[in-house]
Amino acid sequence: MSGTLVVRGATGGDGGDGGSGPVRTSARTAALTVADGGTSAHLERRSTEPFSMLGITWAESSARVTGTIEVRTRSTASHAWSKWLRLDGDSGEGEPGASRGGTAPAWVGPSDGVEVRMSGRSSRRLPEDLRLDMIDPGGGTASRMEPAGFVMDPTDPADPTATDGPADTASPDPSSSSASASPSDPPLTSGPPSDPTATAVPTETETQPATGSASPSPTGSGTGPATPTASASTTVPPAPASTVPRPPITSREGWGADESISPEEPGYLPGGKIKAVVLHHTATSNDYGCAEAPAVIRAVYAYDVQQLTWKDIGYNFLVDKCGTIYEGRKGGVDRPVMGAHAYGFNSETTGIAIIGDYSDAAPSREAMTSVARLAAWKLGQYGVDPTGTATLTAGASGPNYFRQTWAAGAKMTFPVIHGHRDGYNTVCPGDAYYALLPTIRTWAGGAVEGLTLDSVTGAGASGTAVLADTPVTVKWSASTPADLVQEYDVLVDGEVAATVAGTATSAEVKLAPGTHRIAVQGVHQSGRTAVSADVTVLAETAPPTAETTTPAATAPPTTEITTPAATPSPTAGITPPATATPPTTKATTPAATPLPTTKATAPADTTPPAFSTRPNLALRTGTVSTTAVPLTLKWKATDTVGLKEVRLTAPVARTYGPTVTSASLTAKSGVATAWRMTAYDRAGNTAAASVSGTPVILQESVATRTGTWTSKSSSGYLGGKSYGSSTKNASLSWTFTGRSAALVVSRAASSGQVYVYVDGRRTATVDLRSTTTKYRDAVWTTTWTASAKHTVKLVVVGTAGRPAVTTDGLVYLK
Questions:
Q1: Taking a C-beta distance cutoff of 8 angstroms, is the pair 682, 454 a contact?
Q2: pLDDT top residue among 715 and 405
Q3: In Å, how far from its chain's centre is CA 242?
Q4: Which CATH class is domain 452-540?
Q5: Do 14 and 324 touch, CB atoms closer than 8 A?
């Protein structure tokens, strides 16, 4: 039996775990109409069968599109057409041996209409056999099937009977009656693409097991087995124990992988060791529900395998925005599986992709936490420090996003956890996500960040008294996610007095009489520790507070006079007593009155903290883009009793300890941004302050020029252009009104020096030479106390042997 069986399930989303068997996807294609001598192509607006993901593919896997590729779709729910969505025409080489290249796939949600427009550069023709590929990921769940190897023979996609429509999808018959919106529409075809057996010269090698009879079989577990089931001839590398716990991982069966479309056995890293983790985004829409994530993954899988002719999904793991981790390429989540995600560096890395587009929006905390946990676990299997660097051997030549170049076989040094753009010329994983990679590294490798002792019950501030030998509650907070913390220890005078789980935020201890120092120690899962600032607490043997009691008024001692009864007069026959009884006196003394007792009631701390230095902004050095201009935010907060923390509440949320007074951040150019901060003391009092600023990028075209300058064009430059000069004393001047400025340049080993003048005075000599090529590099900055009109001028020094300089504009802060 040949071909791909298409089974449509019931409409609706999957549960995150699935588990009832594979879900079949279906694909339809439509050839693009090429025009303008092969430099543009399009697909007219049309109705289609339902689909949720699309991509543009072409005949040669190594071809790239340097122009623009845009699509828009019609929603099945609202029937409204979307805005134009731009696709990345250079998504990487992909799988060695693949017969087609293409854009990264785009998740557009349930759709039934599409339109495409595509243009190359005038000097370059577009690749051959351009087509639109639309994927329906299937809905609901399908019944369980036998392993693929026992269902059908491997398909021969070159067989013309393998498709539902015309066999030649590259050149459809305009008169065909295949599903289309109108008689003039080219037909949409379904089934696998033609000629996936065509091969290219592999640039990387993998440890390929001997051919087995079947792919790994499903287990029915939501988390799946650690090791795949393979034939006896398969050589599977060991799965070493990790130094940190394994996070929950949803298996391929859990997201409904149809193993029949990728029957090949997995491959493994040639050296059997993962040296680094490459982070990606799928560049698909963020507008998906977490219950839809399995469908998104199935669509990516189908696109990679059936449209690009890869042997499996490219990523080793995927993570949705709710933090659920999914197994990607088969072979065992605890094995060093060879992926197809980082061209030139697949053979020593594993790839983790967050589902979504994070060019402008940052990933969720849940997703970042799961990425950090997963990266730490995989690296822990091989004793690799997530916060360190790794030296990798390039399997292919290339530049990266920052225009750094290398040759095949070169030894390249990267952070152990790095972005796709570090090793390839792509925007992946997006500017917003890339800016957060230092946070991912710290979360994965420790120590616990932002650890702050918040309160000690009865001791709201340093020096307050509590009662000895009774439970005292210590509370704390930290910015590192609890899932990455092994435990917390309460330290009393430097010794561990209580230990609780990493998910806890409080613990009880008893204090002996006397003065004590209390702190909290966080133990990261890596074993690294961090200790909070301590507070001093006095433990007393009597209640530290009591009332002043004044007894009731006491009457003075009283004297009671007791007089005997009167003596009768003498009468006849009666002899009176010899003597009369005198009166007696009785002194009655009231009971003793207790002494008054005194209670010293400390007044509550009602004084709020203060910003002794109000928040202020300054430009800083670093890589500049239109969506991420490097800034430094500075402040200083104080409190008369005890400052707890300072929180940045907008435009992003961050929490800083009481001794932190600055942070490195980024902001969009041309957008006024308000940075709002709130200081908290230990008693809960607060103070707020803010500062606003707008980074503005000035191109060289608006500068006043002297001497000879040459315009250069490249997508690596701001605005696509820059100016270069080797002429001594050639200059560029910018005049603006602002409070901070940064000079942006391109740098290389042959770059020369420049003088920098500010308001007519030479203030610096800046050497632009760099051992690595850098683009859009803010290399010099200055800041003033207030906004005012200034002129910054750059002058070419004409350095002997390397006179050339390339500028990329000036940024100022207004």
A1: yes
A2: 405
A3: 23
A4: mainly beta
A5: no
SS3 131: strand
**Run of H or E including 221:** none
Burial of 358 (0-12, 13-18, 19+ CB in 10 A): buried
Helix axes 437-445, 365-380, angle to 10 degrees: 50
Distance of CA 525 to the CA centre of its chain: 19
List the CATH code of the domain at 610-693: 2.60.40.10
Q: SS in 3 state form for 775-803?
A: EEEEEEEEEEEEEEEEEEEEEECCCCCCC
Backbone torsions φ then ψ of 248, nearest 5 degrees: -65, 135
Beta-carbon contacts of 43 under 8 Å, excluding residues fewer than 6 positions away, are: 30, 32, 33, 114, 115, 116, 132, 186
With tokens 């030549």, the residue in question is 397
Q: Would you say 704 and 732 are in contact if contact means Cβ atoms under 8 Å apart?
A: yes
pLDDT in tens, 618-649: 999 999 998 899 999 999 999 987 888 999 99
In this prediction, residue 536 carries a pLDDT of 87
* Torsion angle defined by CA atoms of residues 5, 10, 11 and 12, in that order, rounded to the nearest 10 degrees: -110
pTM above 0.85, yes or no: no
154: enclosing H helix or E strand: none
Phi-psi region of 367 (alpha: psi -120 to 50; beta: other; left: phi over 0): alpha
More confident residue, 234 or 78: 78
State the DSSP code for 546.
Answer: -
Residue 112 phi, psi (nearest 5):
-140, 25
Q: Which amino acid is at 676?
A: R
CATH superfamily of domain region 265-289+309-445: Peptidoglycan recognition protein-like (3.40.80.10)
Q: What angle do CA 351, 355, 361 make, to 5 degrees?
A: 110
Residue ranges per structural domain of the chain: 26-136, 265-289+309-445, 452-540, 610-693, 697-813
Give the residue carrying structure tokens 């065992």: 332
- Range 423-434 average pLDDT: 92
Contact 441, 485 (CB under 8 A): no
The two tokens of residue 804 are 């050339």
Q: Which residue has the tokens 């806890």?
A: 504
Strands (E), 603-653: 610-619, 622-623, 629-638, 643-650
Mean pLDDT, the chain, rounded, equals: 79
Residue type, 486: Q
